């Protein structure tokens, strides 16, 4: 006896008509009849009295109705509980961020993810690039933000491009550059801010350090990290050269494009997409969000 035989039995018992039961189960009438015949054979009793005009339940058939419903109910409940347990194993998502810009971006994307996967359990790790790569490599994290090629020698993973970030001049509203629509590299004079190398990827530090080396040391202020550097720019210690993803911006700062500087690809690193529907959804939401922004 199996659950499909019981489903066929209950359909015939409900309609007392093999044709209607076959339509309900979406099976041919001979196939339904065969399932009932096998069930009767296994139980050793007749479940229906069939004539050329109608179908009637036997006493054994009437007694089986409640038992069949209980068996199918228990079986479906077990399936549901197993599915919920399986879902609980796959709805956790660890996301790596290196600065507050990425944390703010993560909040926007997770808000959208919650709409489609309400039970998702998200965690956000906030640390420098090199340490984050180790967590991604051993799959303690499922995904992390980063710039292309930043980690190519550090992890065995995949990279998905989200947006090409132009390097822009970031300054406060009182800075002499604040009203500029665009700047040439030769105009990047005056005090500048340099992020410490451990806090930013190498391609960004390369641009910042080349600019800093062209100035007097008195005109260079060093920020301990991205957040510190942005705070220094807000306070008026100079301007900061940094990639602009166009999605998350500080409202009190100006973002001015600079001619002649190559954009940097910003995206997501991940290790494994297999059987991880939550990570797939997060990546699709990120791609869609940046496409709409563009």
UniProtKB/TrEMBL annotation:
GO cellular component: protein-DNA complex
Swiss-Prot/TrEMBL keywords: DNA-binding, Transcription, Transcription regulation
PROSITE patterns membership: HTH_LYSR
Domain of life: Bacteria
Pfam families per UniProt: HTH_1, LysR_substrate
An MF annotation (GO) of this entry: DNA-binding transcription factor activity
Residues covered by the HTH lysR-type domain: 1-58
InterPro entries the UniProt entry points to: LysR_HTH_N (IPR000847), LysR_subst-bd (IPR005119), WH-like_DNA-bd_sf (IPR036388), WH_DNA-bd_sf (IPR036390)
Annotated family: Belongs to the LysR transcriptional regulatory family.
PANTHER family, alphabetized: HCA OPERON TRANSCRIPTIONAL ACTIVATOR HCAR, TRANSCRIPTIONAL DUAL REGULATOR HCAR-RELATED
Name of this protein: HTH lysR-type domain-containing protein
């Amino acid at each position: 006896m199996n659950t499909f035989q019981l489903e066929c039995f209950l359909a015939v018992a409900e309609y007392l008509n093999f044709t209607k039961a076959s339509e309900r189960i979406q099976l041919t009438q001979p196939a339904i009849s065969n399932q009932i015949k096998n069930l009767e054979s296994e139980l050793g009793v007749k479940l229906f009295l069939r004539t050329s005009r109608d179908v009637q339940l036997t006493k054994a058939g009437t007694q089986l109705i409640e038992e069949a419903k209980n068996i199918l109910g228990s079986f479906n409940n077990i399936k549901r509980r197993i599915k919920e347990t399986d879902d609980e194993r796959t709805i956790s998502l660890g996301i790596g961020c290196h600065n507050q810009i990425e944390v703010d971006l993560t909040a926007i994307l997770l808000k959208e993810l919650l709409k489609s996967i309400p039970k998702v359990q998200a965690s956000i790790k906030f640390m420098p690039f090199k340490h984050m790569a180790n967590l991604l490599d051993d799959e303690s994290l499922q995904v992390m933000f980063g710039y292309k090629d930043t980690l190519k020698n550090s992890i065995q993973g995949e990279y998905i491009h989200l947006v090409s970030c132009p390097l822009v001049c970031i300054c406060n509203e009182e800075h002499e550059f604040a009203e500029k629509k665009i700047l040439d590299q030769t105009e990047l004079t005056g005090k500048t801010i340099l992020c410490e190398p451990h806090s930013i990827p190498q391609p960004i530090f390369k641009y910042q350090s080349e600019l800093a080396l062209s100035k007097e040391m008195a005109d260079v202020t060093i920020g301990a990290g991205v957040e510190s550097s942005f705070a220094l720019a807000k306070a008026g210690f100079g301007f900061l050269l940094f990639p602009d993803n166009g999605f998350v911006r500080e409202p009190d700062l100006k973002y001015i494009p600079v001619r002649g500087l190559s954009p940097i690809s910003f995206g997501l690193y991940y290790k494994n997409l297999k059987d991880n529907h939550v990570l797939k959804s997060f990546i699709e939401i990120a791609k869609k969000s940046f496409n709409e922004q563009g």
